Amino acid sequence: MKTKWLDRSLMRGGYLTLVTTQAEYKRALKDMDVDASDRFVTPGSYATTHTLNNNKGELAFIVGVDLERMKDFDSIALAALLVHEAVHVWQGTEREAGVMGCFGPEGEAYAVQNISSELMHACAKRLDG
C-alpha cells in the first residue's frame, strides 16, 4: 500500500501525510527513500510532526498520531491536536522559505486552516474505516 500524500495547495513546496501506525510511518519513509529508526510518535506524546527531505531533496512532513493512545479522547481534543501539528507543518514551511511570518497573518491563517483540514480528513478516513 502506497503512502497517501495529501493536498498541499496552500503550502509552498513540501509534501504532507498522516500516519497512525509505525508500519505506515516506515512505508512513508520508504517512499521517500529515507532510512530512519525513530518512532512515528515520540514516546509519551500523542502526536509528532517529522520534517524531512524526500529522495528528490524536497521538503516532506509526516504527521504521526497515536490513535490508540487517544481512544478515550473526544473528537474536539483530536481536532485540536491536529491543528497543533498543522502549525508545526506551517512553521517548517516558513523555515524552508527562509523568513518566519513572510506570508503575513492572513496567509498563515489560510495555510494552517488548509493543513488542518487535510489532516482532519485523513484522520476521519482512518476512524471511519
Whole-number count of domains = 1
Give a quick account of the main beta sheet: strands, pairing sense, barrel closure: 3 strands, mixed
Structural class: alpha+beta
Poorly predicted spans: none
Strand content: 5-15%
Write the element-wise H/E pattern from the N-terminal end onward.
EHEEHH
Describe this structure in words.
The chain is α+β, with helices and mostly antiparallel strands. The protein has one domain. The chain contains 3 helices and 3 strands, in the order βαββαα. The longest helix is centred in the C-terminal third of the chain and has 25 residues.
List the helices and strands and how they pair.
Blueprint: E1 15-19, H1 22-32, E2 47-53, E3 59-65, H2 75-97, H3 104-128
Parallel strand pairs: 1-3
Antiparallel strand pairs: 2-3
Helix pairs in contact: 2-3
Summarize the structure.
The chain has helices at residues 22-32, 75-97, 104-128; strands at residues 15-19, 47-53, 59-65. With 129 residues, the chain is α+β, with helices and mostly antiparallel strands.
Tags for this model:
3-stranded mixed sheet; globular; 129 residues; alpha+beta
